[in-house]
């Protein structure tokens, strides 16, 4: 029995081979196809990407996140262009009155005098007895001398009318002549002799005018229409 089956299979094998040669590829699931399987094929190529889908709807708003840490301070920017001047404001209310300050000591010393007697005596202080100003009483009309009580720098000046004869006059400080003025009289005329000077005086110094020299040199004149004057005042005191 086994021999019969083997012979039958050997006879069928060439027949199946002829049928396969005549008809091409064997049909799948035929006894010949199941007898020997072929090698697996290669994977195919990837297909093209599909088109983007439609945008979906916005989701719900999320919760507020925590505040981040403060970053470092940035560099200072450039100054901007000045803005326009604003409108002027209303005046403020007056402030309270301040405390009274300490009073400052005011240094005053001045005089202005004129001549009343004609032709004063030479080599002696000229006594100007017409008083224009002598509030501090630093000028003595009885001696014709200014007495310094406030040390400092003083300004002195004089304007003398000259008539009938020449005039030689000098300004004295502490028994020493420091300035001289001479005017030569012209007949049938009235002349003027004047001078001015700055002097530094110490307390107790005296200043005056007097005619000097020998001879007829005392032509200083004064009447109701002509004056001869002498004046002086403190310019600034010594602060020490």
Automatic annotation (TrEMBL):
Does the record bear Signal in its keywords?
Answer: yes
Parts forming coiled coils: none
One GO cellular component this record assigns the protein to is: collagen trimer
Q: Which UniProt keywords apply?
A: Collagen, Hydroxylation, Secreted, Signal
Chain intervals with Basic and acidic residues compositional bias: 51-67
What is the residue range of the signal peptide feature? 1-21
Where is the protein found, in the record's own terms?
A: Secreted
> For the region Disordered, what residue ranges are annotated?
22-95
Fetch the InterPro entries from UniProt.
Answer: C1q_dom, Collagen, Collagen/C1q_domain, Tumour_necrosis_fac-like_dom
- The C1q domain extends over 104-240
> One Pfam family of this protein, by short name?
C1q
PANTHER family per the record?
A: ADIPONECTIN, EMILIN ELASTIN MICROFIBRIL INTERFACE-LOCATED PROTEIN ELASTIN MICROFIBRIL INTERFACER
Return the protein name: ADIPO protein
Source species of the chain: Probosciger aterrimus (Palm cockatoo)
Q: Which gene encodes it?
A: Adipoq
């Amino acid at each position: 029995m086994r021999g019969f089956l083997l012979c039958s299979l050997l006879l069928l094998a060439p027949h199946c081979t002829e049928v396969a040669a005549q008809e091409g590829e064997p049909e799948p699931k035929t006894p010949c196809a199941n007898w020997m399987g072929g090698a697996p094929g290669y994977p195919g190529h990837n297909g093209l990407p599909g088109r983007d889908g439609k945008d979906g709807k916005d989701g719900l708003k999320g919760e507020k996140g925590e505040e981040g840490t403060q970053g470092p301070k940035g560099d200072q920017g450039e100054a901007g262009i000045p803005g326009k001047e604003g409108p002027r404001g209303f005046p403020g209310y007056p402030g309270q009155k301040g405390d009274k300050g300490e009073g400052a000591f005011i240094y005053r010393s001045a005089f202005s005098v004129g001549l009343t007697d004609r032709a004063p005596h030479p080599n002696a202080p000229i006594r100007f007895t017409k008083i224009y100003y002598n509030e501090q009483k630093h000028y003595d009309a009885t001696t014709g001398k200014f007495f310094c009580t406030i040390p400092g720098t003083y300004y002195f000046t004089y304007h003398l009318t000259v008539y009938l004869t020449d005039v030689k006059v000098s300004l004295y400080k502490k028994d020493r002549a420091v300035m001289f003025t001479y005017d030569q009289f012209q007949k049938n005329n009235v002349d003027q002799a004047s001078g001015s000077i700055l002097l530094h005086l110490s307390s107790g110094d005296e200043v005056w005018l007097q005619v000097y020299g020998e001879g007829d040199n005392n032509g200083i004149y004064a009447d109701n229409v002509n004056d001869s004057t002498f004046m002086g005042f403190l310019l600034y005191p010594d602060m020490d």
